[in-house]
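Quick review question:
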């Protein structure tokens, strides 16, 4: 693997929000006196009732529970809106860029306040109260952010279901949290295509008796069926609603939202986050990791249906009084230059996206990037999967013209926000490494028996102590929460990921522990072999899984997607085998390479290796839950092209 080192750029080293010396002092305080450290950090929020208690969490079975700032009271929407009004009322809070490049809206903090209050009044008039669960099934339109914040103003708990999910997936999530109300749109619009959201809701509600009201935002104006007494349009209700709504004082430990994980490894879990700790974490990490400065335009491309959209499109940036860009469209519409055109159009300083998007764009060549100036860009971020060094270098060199630090941010729905990532003004970068833990985060690596491993090593990634943004429970199933995360290695939070730690203490996420391949006793993360394959000039993307092997125990089965314009051939297959052998060593020699025009991915763009593993094992009859796949038809093609017989 590439071990290039990119030092902190001189200008940033001097004037970043957090420089190396501030970082050292903050780490030291967080370690020596966490109570004082967290009391200080929590002052970045406005509290209605100040807290006296800080961390009362325990990972042990006897007194298990996660709790931060428990006796404090605050309101999330007041922190994200009201407190900015005096100084930033006329500053854009949200810049909305529509699917069609001609479509946009700028919403100031003052307007955001009005819209959120109106939405809260509409929800309230339909019976929504503090503690109620509200399911949001919305496209990336400003009303999605208004609805989220309106829930927090009332103290209702939102559960956002990604608008690409099917009626069945929506229904199971509505049932799981027992929502009485669903907010949706007539249709969504992505890449010029219409998504029938209201029709999906109607289909879902055939299987959900709990829902009494459906509020429909008119995005496209399509003619949709409306059930009398149950369904209403948002527009007229909004116009009639009052423009004020007093924010509820919520306990720091009151639930804020439920969000289901993306389902890469199994059935999605209803992750519940709390009011105080979550908002603190989203806000702190947004400022620290992106070196956010007042007035800058910040763009996270994630959909609000994922946790990244919650923490880094809405809550973190708005808590910090930032201007956050919200994008309705897709990276390849009208063409592959869209991201960079949007950066130029709105003077984006900070840009945050996922490796899957980068690899897809990289595949199309550099000209689309170079068609835009990207002169405003200052910091680039990555999240969702390990970013392979090849994609990292491209992001740095081509997208950022070699000027912009890349923050590779490791975290999970469960963690609420980023846990391991560089601080652009303090951390030297290594392509492919998420680098170092943030303040007050205590990662550790353990072996299969749970023994802590020291120094440069590789193992299972756990977190030793709670942090404020940690999830509080699996909704409705606290036992499952404890069972899933705290019993594999008692007394520790187990992330499910594997990682390597190098001599500088940098973390390299090697992939899911369940995906580790054991070849003749050598344990190998999927990320390493995949990175080697992607480093080949003709390869766009690769996914590697283990397969049964009579001699080695496990062999390596690699699925490879070639760059646009490259043709699969036996000769190329041989070249790739030799290439990986040469890059990593004979132990990593792939046994089988299958060319795959598409890989099975979750809707959030992550490769679902468990499906690929089943195909590699020849167990195509037992693929498990594939309802969160973006394109299930990919699977049939993969099975048809399986190389097992060869
Ligand atoms: P499920 O838990 O239902 O299987 P999921 O784990 O894909 O779904 P998320 O919470 O969206 O759901 O994803 C978190 C996971 O994504 C992490 O555990 C890790 O495997 C991966 N990940 C996220 N960011 C990074 C990163 N920067 N580097 C490496 N891996 C990352
Ligand atoms: Mg997970």
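Suggested answer, residue by residue:
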């Amino acid at each position: 693997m590439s071990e290039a080192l990119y030092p902190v750029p001189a200008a940033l080293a001097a004037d970043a929000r957090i420089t190396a010396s501030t970082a050292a002092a903050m780490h030291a305080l967080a370690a020596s006196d966490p109570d004082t450290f967290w009391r200080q950090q929590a002052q970045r929020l406005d509290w209605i009732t100040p807290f006296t208690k800080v961390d009362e969490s325990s990972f042990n079975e006897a007194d298990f529970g996660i709790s931060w700032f428990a006796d404090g009271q605050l309101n999330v929407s007041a922190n994200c809106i009201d407190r900015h009004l005096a100084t930033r009322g006329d500053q854009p809070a949200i810049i909305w860029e529509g699917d069609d490049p001609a479509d946009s809206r700028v919403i100031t903090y003052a307007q955001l306040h009005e819209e959120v209050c109106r939405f809260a009044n509409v929800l309230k008039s339909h019976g929504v109260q503090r503690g109620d669960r509200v399911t949001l099934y919305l496209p990336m339109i400003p009303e999605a952010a208004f609805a989220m914040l309106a829930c927090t103003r009332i103290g209702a708990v939102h559960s956002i279901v990604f608008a690409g999910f099917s009626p069945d997936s929506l229904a199971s999530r509505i049932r799981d949290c027992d929502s009485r109300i669903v907010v949706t749109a007539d249709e969504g619009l992505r890449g010029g295509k219409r998504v029938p959201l209201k029709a999906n809701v109607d289909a879902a509600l055939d299987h959900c008796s709990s829902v009494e009201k459906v509020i429909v935002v008119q995005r496209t104006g399509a003619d949709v069926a409306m059930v009398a007494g149950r369904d209403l349009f948002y527009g007229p209700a909004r116009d009639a609603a009052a423009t004020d709504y007093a924010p509820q004082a919520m306990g720091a430990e009151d639930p804020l939202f439920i969000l289901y994980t993306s389902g890469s490894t199994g059935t999605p879990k209803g992750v519940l986050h709390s009011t105080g700790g979550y908002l603190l974490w989203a806000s702190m990490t947004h400022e620290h990791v992106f070196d956010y400065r007042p007035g800058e335009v910040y763009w996270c491309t994630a959909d609000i249906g994922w946790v990244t959209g919650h923490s880094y499109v809405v809550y973190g940036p708005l808590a910090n009084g930032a201007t956050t860009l919200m994008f309705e469209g897709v990276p390849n519409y009208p063409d592959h230059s869209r991201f960079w055109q949007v950066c130029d159009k709105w003077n984006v300083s900070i840009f945050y996206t996922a490796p899957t998007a980068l690899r897809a764009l990289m595949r199309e060549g550099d000209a689309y990037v170079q068609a835009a100036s990207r002169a405003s860009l200052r910091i680039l971020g990555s999240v969702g999967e390990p970013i392979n060094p090849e994609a990292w270098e491209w992001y740095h060199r081509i997208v950022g013209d070699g000027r912009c630090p890349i923050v590779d941010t490791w975290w999970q729905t469960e963690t609420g926000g980023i846990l391991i990532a560089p601080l652009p003004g303090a951390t030297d970068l290594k392509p492919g490494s998420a680098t170092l833990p943030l303040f007050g985060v205590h990662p550790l690596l353990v072996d299969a028996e749970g023994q802590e491993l020291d120094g440069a090593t590789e193992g299972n990634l756990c977190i030793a102590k709670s942090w404020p943004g940690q999830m509080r429970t699996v909704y409705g199933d606290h036992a499952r929460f404890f069972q899933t995360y705290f019993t594999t290695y008692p007394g520790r939070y187990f992330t499910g990921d594997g990682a390597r730690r190098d001599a500088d203490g940098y973390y390299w996420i090697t992939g899911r522990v369940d995906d580790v391949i054991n070849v003749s006793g050598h344990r190998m993360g999927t990320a390493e072999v995949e990175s080697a394959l992607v480093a080949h000039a003709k390869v766009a993307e690769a996914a590697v899984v283990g397969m049964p092997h009579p001699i080695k125990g496990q062999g390596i089965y690699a699925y490879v997607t070639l760059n646009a314009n490259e043709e699969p051939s036996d000769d190329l297959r041989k070249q790739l085998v030799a290439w990986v052998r040469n890059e990593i060593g004979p132990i990593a020699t792939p046994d089988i390479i299958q060319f795959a025009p598409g890989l099975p991915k979750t809707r959030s763009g992550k490769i679902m290796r468990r499906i690929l593993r089943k195909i590699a094992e020849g167990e195509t009859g037992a693929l498990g839950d594939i309802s969160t796949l973006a394109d299930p038809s990919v699977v049939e093609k993969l099975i048809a092209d399986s190389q097992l017989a060869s």
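Why it works: The chain has a mean pLDDT of 95. Residues 261, 265, 412, 496 surround magnesium ion (ligand 2) (CB under 6 Å).
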